[in-house]
């Protein structure tokens, strides 16, 4: 495991974008696993800049997003598809057919889960997975639980996640109660993982993630078992 310290959130975005850009330059047809949320916004902004400067191109890349809310259409402003379109897909030259995200608005969610896993497998699996960290240790929407799901699945969001994500909605009742998420299997099979963690409020969960016992109650702790994990954070952990 490598830990990279970023002085602030701005730097974190720049370093993350340069890290991803290096991977794209080495492997233009990279399969990227991507997160949404507040933490990666800076990374998407700097990736956009690097693209605009002609340094990187995504024409051969493929991307798979981690998750989507159940019940929201892609044009709902709080859907993760909308977020991706606003922050990344519409800003760079990634062919839209190369950008995949689970659909939360379909009637047969089980079939959608199978479709997503098949699509990831047909692409050869995730090469580089970028992750954010939930305050309760979720990665994607793999929530604390008694077990860990390997495959893409539908998950009931925990009260902590609903509370944390209320900031994006008008009131807590508007936050969807379920999501569809990539499973821990696809995440852990990625060749490389970059975990982005920003803000003092995540100090405790970051410490548990990296140095606590590996437990399904802290899903992110499984990342300790990954062979090529880089953690990029603006939190200085004393250890
Ligand atoms: C979102 C996702 C989540 C977020 C996590 C942190 O696609 O996978 O696991 O990464 O909830 O979100 P922020 O960055 O908003 O604190």
TrEMBL record:
Signal peptide: none
Keywords: Carbohydrate metabolism, Hydrolase
GO biological process: one example: glucosamine catabolic process
Pfam families the UniProt entry points to: Glucosamine_iso
Record's keyword annotation contains Cell membrane: no
GO CC terms, sorted: cytoplasm
MF (Gene Ontology): glucosamine-6-phosphate deaminase activity; identical protein binding
Domain Glucosamine/galactosamine-6-phosphate isomerase: 30-225
Enzyme class, UniProt record, top EC level: hydrolase
Domain of life of the organism encoding this protein: Bacteria
EC number(s) per entry: 3.5.99.6
NCBIfam families named among the record's database cross-references: nagB (TIGR00502)
Protein name per its UniProtKB record: Glucosamine-6-phosphate deaminase
Lineage, broadest ranks: Bacteria, Bacillati, Bacillota, Clostridia, Eubacteriales
Gene from which the chain derives: nagB
């Amino acid at each position: 495991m490598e830990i990279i310290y970023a002085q602030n959130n701005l730097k974190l975005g720049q370093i993350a974008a340069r890290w991803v850009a290096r991977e794209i330059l080495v492997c233009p047809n990279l399969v990227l696993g991507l997160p949404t949320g507040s933490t990666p916004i800076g990374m998407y902004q700097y990736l956009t800049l690097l693209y605009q400067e002609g340094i990187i191109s995504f024409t051969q890349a493929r991307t798979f997003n981690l998750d989507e809310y159940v019940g929201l259409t892609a044009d709902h402003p709080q859907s993760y598809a909308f977020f991706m379109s606003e922050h990344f897909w519409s800003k760079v030259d990634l062919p839209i057919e190369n950008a995949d995200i689970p659909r939360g608005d379909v009637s047969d969610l089980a079939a959608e889960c199978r479709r997503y896993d098949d699509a990831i497998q047909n692409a050869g699996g995730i090469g580089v997975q970028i992750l954010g960290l939930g305050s309760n240790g979720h990665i994607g929407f793999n929530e604390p639980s008694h077990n860990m799901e390997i495959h893409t699945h539908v998950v009931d969001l925990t009260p902590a996640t609903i509370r944390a994500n209320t900031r994006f909605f008008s009131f807590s009742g508007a936050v969807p109660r379920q999501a569809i998420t990539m499973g821990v299997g696809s995440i852990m099979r990625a060749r490389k993982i970059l975990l982005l963690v920003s803000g003092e409020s995540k100090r405790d969960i970051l410490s548990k993630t990296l140095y606590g016992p590996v437990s399904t109650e802290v899903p992110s702790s499984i990342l300790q078992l990954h062979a090529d994990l880089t953690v990029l954070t603006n939190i200085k952990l004393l250890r």
